[in-house]
Amino acid sequence: MTIALALHGGAGTLRRQDMSAEQEKAYRKGLQQALDAGHAVLLAGGSALDAVCASVCALEDDPLFNAGRGSVYTLDGKQEMEAAVMDGNRQDAGSVTGLAGVQNPVRLARAVMEQSPHVTLGFAAAEDFARRIGAPCRPPEYFHTDKRWQALLLEQERLAAGGSDADIPEDRKHGTVGAVALDTQGWLAAATSTGGRTAKWPGRIGDTPVIGAGTWADGHCAVSGTGHGEYFVRVAAGHEISARIRYLGETLEQACDVVVQRDLPRLGGTGGVAAVDRQGRVALPFNCEGMYRAAIDGQGRRIVAIYREDG
Length: 311
Ligand code: ASP
Known about the structure:
The record marks 175-176 as: Cleavage. The protein is an alpha+beta fold. The chain contains ten helices and twelve strands. The chain has helices spanning 21-43, 48-61, 105-115, 123-133, 140-143, 146-160, 170-173, 229-234, 237-248, 252-267; strands spanning 4-12, 81-87, 92-99, 120-122, 177-182, 188-194, 215-217, 221-227, 271-277, 282-283, 290-296, 302-307. It has an eight-stranded mixed β-sheet with strand order 4-3-2-6-5-1-11-12. The chain has a four-stranded antiparallel β-sheet with strand order 7-8-9-10. It binds aspartic acid.
């Protein structure tokens, strides 16, 4: 029986020369742990949905990645987290946006799918729902990292000096975590979680919680995106990849390449995706210098990589 899992931890200007050996080691360890967490679920015969949630929770709990703990800050110094899950088997989905204080936004997104009549809940309503179902919450210090705070100060300075959002190096704004999986039943699922983009306007909603943009799963493929969310929404990236497979008969790799290497850059969008199809093929394309990524494909081949020239 074929199982497969792929994940990402954000994409951007990730260059070997900009990273210390310790930093690189820590990122690889975080990716490895998240891969192991999801893979263990699949090996035990668990569902793709459980597997992607396990991987994404591991990344949300790791302050190195921009999701859950370690999320970036909005222009006014708050954290507004977003997450989504999609179960390809039932083509059902749940997502949350504008969330603060919930330890694992991805679990709340799943609860929206499973315990509410809705697909997406945001802001105060999402937090009320979290309280009602007893989702584990944490104080602001838990989510804070100096690195993300410094990144905000830098952006604020840049904007105050007349710079535009477009001048900010992509690596400072990027980050999202996501996982896609195929389980022993042949079912696919996707999950994505993010703090969004540094210095985003309060109330801004990115691609992660928009089903069909940053998160998608059906009977053909599962996709999780990372990159400049506005562009992922404008090309309906996740759904577009699936549509190309279904209507044009493209392979997962071909469909992902068209969207990531042609459609997104044509509008000016940078980023990448983690994707898997029902044969257990994995694709991890990106159109910038690097993407934190890891996978075990249907043939058991394992990769943990960061830079373009890696793996
Ligand atoms: N896609 C995320 C957003 O736009 C950020 C990222 O993946 O870099 O909110």
